[in-house]
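Researcher: We're reviewing a set of sequences before deciding which ones to prioritize for further study. For each one, I'd like a predicted 3D structure that I can look through quickly. This is Cytochrome c oxidase accessory protein CcoG. If possible, include the structure in token form so it fits the rest of the review sheet.
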Amino acid sequence: MDKPKTIIPIKPIAAGADGRREEMVSLYEAQPKIYPREVSGWFANWRWALVALTQLVFYGLPWLQWNGRPAMLFDLGARRFYLFDLVLYPQDFIYLTVLLIISAYGLFLFTAVAGRLWCGFACPQTVYTELFLWIERRWEGDRGRRMKLDRPGWSLDKLWRKGGKHASWLALSLWTGFTFVGYFTPIRVLWQEVLTLGMGPWELFWTGFYGLATYGNAGFMREQVCKYMCPYARFQSAMFDRDTLIISYDEKRGEPRGSRPRGTVAAERGLGDCISCTLCVQVCPTGIDIREGLQYECIGCAACIDVCDTVMDKMGSPRGLIRYATLNGMEAGWSRKQMWSRIARPRVLIYSSVLLLIVIAFVGSLYLRTPFKVDVVRDRGSLARIVDDGYIENVYRVQIMNATETEQRFTIFMDHLPQVQMQVQQEIIVGPAEARWVPVAVRVPPEVAQALGSGAQRVELVITRQRQGTDPDVAVHEKTTFMVPR
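Model: Here's the predicted structure for Cytochrome c oxidase accessory protein CcoG, in token form for your review sheet.
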């Protein structure tokens, strides 16, 4: 069992001016260290499967080559973001916004259906805590040996085991920081810099910062991050209702608690199925007792379900004393089928519909996205000027950003201006994932300018990508103004 909490007593102090006795109460309480017991079972297998999947993606993606570069690369220096065949520019920030909205709605949907699934199975804090605990068990042993090892006093065995554990933690943390930086600097280049001790100051800083953050959060803070630092634990209840599947203790079946010999019927002794083994508390990574009801500290990892089912098997009782259930289902004694039938309720349907619409719009926008982007900037040195033969000239700077990894050719002309003359390259070549500024001078004869009238006239610059193979011509219309001086 865990060590009992250290209770700080209330200290009386001198009486106040009004004669009433005052007391000083400490707002802090010493928290015992939590030693989660290793558990196996259906939910534990799912958790480790997601640990393997998420870390395979995180550690492996920077090494995956695509078109001669990393498949995912955020090149901040060049202001290019590569995602497989996609080349994104800062002007594509809207896609990141939509992606965050999709993630938020997905989280709301999962929470409304089955509670903190994200926290218990895929959250980085949970994933790295599992990895660090696995390393800790390999070096220090099971729960009992770890508790014994942490008792006061040092020995050569304790120094060896503690040193090995922390060295392994630091190695994993620094590799995690190195991988994180590998999303911003090509990881093969970064690896060569590490081997030659040539890492830049920012690369070195972020590798150390992210590595030490992983080391501190997963190695020492663990449940403190989930209980006190993560805001999700505080507002999750707003997304719960009485038909949300949560980890529940069947009080009707489990009470009154009490130990009994294996193979005996609990009802014959006037007991419930719970034998007070406290294993559900010992396996909990946040140290709560699920038998006291749902608590905000519960991260939904379902470790208590796995261990309780194991105990029920040994005692010859049916599984499910602790299980995923709804409040309505527990109170009314519904079957699993009846509880699942309540999933399609208004809140879930609204979340699902909104999420589906956003995903469809997001995918459609990516599919219909033009293969290049254009910015038009007027020459600030001269908004408009009169040149030879009374012609009115405006000068623009056009930035063409190639959003593909093949060379593209472009032409530019002005729309909505009669008798316009343009001084611009007939064919503009922009290399793969390259951005190029092109000067464009636009002139109109004096009679046209007189017909237009003085001031700003709305016009359009049309930038057309020439046909390439089977790809059709693509044109972008960029609105701007043509100034006619008074």
